[in-house]
User: What shape does this take?
Amino acid sequence: MIALALVTSPLATFAQEHHHHEEQETPPEPLAFPHSREGSGTSWMPDSSPVFAHHFMAGDWMLMLHYAAAAGYDDQWSDRGSRRFTSTNWAMGMASHPLLGGQLTFRTMLSAEPATAGGERQLPLLLQSGETYGGQPLHDRQHPHDLFMEVAALYRHPLGDLFGLELYGGPAGEPALGPTAFMHRPSAMNNPLAPIGHHWQDSTHISFGVLTAGIYNRSVKLEGSLFHGREPDENRWDFDLGALDSWSGRVSVNPTEQTSFQISYGFVNSPEALRPQESLHRLTASGSYANGIVALTALWGRNIVPSVSSDSLLLETSIDLDGSNAPFVRIEYVQKLGHDLVLPGDPDAKYDVFQCSFGFLHRFTGGPVVPFIGASLDAGLVPGSIEAQYGTRFPLGAFVYIGLQPPKVGHEHQMSGM
Assistant: This one.
């Protein structure tokens, strides 16, 4: 399997030397913050988060290209495991321009995973769950991302010297619910595995129809969203547009350059195609730390449904030893339900499952494009009541992969802006 271990802020790519553009786009100092704070959608990360991107100037337009592509062999052992060569990949383009005293940014994020990791090639990942294939719920597999991961626009405008207005929306985007999506978090961007608690935490990062409004200052942002709650369907090539039938709110706080916290709550209408009568409320809280060497995230997510509620906990870290070598670890606890893992018996029965992922990534730095090679081992623990389903209480899996990413952008080359 491959992990796309690149993440950067959608705005974090513009050179400081373009002072005339900076003067047009930088709001009063109380509202200025580095673009490395920008996570997926409208989420915030620590200001000291690393940035990987190519950036360009075209007149008054600031342009960014961000991508992650990897391919390798995924082998998951146990009676529910499988193995295959596969690839995960995505690319984001961004264009930003001054407008009416503020800044307008267009984003498009695309993935070829419907071809490289879809259908029978869906990524084996023990204890993972969520979405469908062939009209059946996926379990012990990771679904591919859609071709259209994000097609959205973001506008920021200062409201005096102390506050700013932020508007975001589009046919594909991410509402203000949960932390920065796993592939964009500094603590997770070197990890080739999606968290098994993804559908308790940040699964709404691809929603087909999103509108978000927020008020922010230098350290705090309060925002709310309306969005379409149904998860993407099995046709990963199109837009699954629908009514804005769900809502969420989030408070983000960055008290220091190295820290970022969020708490969010939302109502997600009928997210699962196979359980259309069931809606859920989701509550998440997270804290992230990044200092240029160590990145750490602690995260709790809870799904609240009428029949039964369930929780997830995650702790993950990545350490940049020297710019080229980076070990990473993720530890998870999730209360999976019977219907999540497609187990016999009560579909709402809770099963406490654990997974630890350990890995190492090496980057071949120095060029305009950075190749990398990595390996990851995931070790699970399931309760004795479902040991027979897996053939073991300790399911194991491994990934070996190669890939490409942009070079790291130094903080001295990042603009400050709204």
The two ends are 37 Å apart (CA to CA). Residues 19-417 form a domain with the Porin fold (CATH 2.40.160.10).
